[in-house]
Amino acid sequence: MRTGTKRSTKGESTTDPGVTLVEVIVSIALTGGVVLAILGALFTVVRSSSQNANATDLQAVVGGAADQLAGVEWEPCPDGSPSYLGAARSAAGRVGWDAAAVSIVDVDYWSAGAGGWVEDCSGAASLGTVETLQRITLRVTSPDGISTKSFDVVKSSTTPFAAGVT
Asked: How many CB atoms lie within 10 A of CB 41?
């Protein structure tokens, strides 16, 4: 049952003005522009997040490789040493990277006679404590190949001690 008053349609226009084709095209273009801007911003956020995670993993591998290498027993002439390389590469597995992401680029030896670092290790172990220093240059490369970090670890055959500790 209906209650209320009846509306009369007399005097009202029966044509609906609707929307024009131009208005439809403009609204579609504006909507498309907004969607593209949102998608662009979303893509930037995802890419930035991925790069940030990659950089964080790279730093973790760098720190882990340095720590692992520092903990390996000192070798007199470690060129091509599997223990040095194996220790450094073990850090890559901690973040799920291939061990080949870590490589030993160079090993130099301190020579007081030469006044600096030299590539020849002849006699390094038999000379004084100063000449048993080794500078191992490591390189870590991210799996995507975009980020690379090289750094040095200096090892010595001497064990540091704290004065006054008994």
From this structure: 10
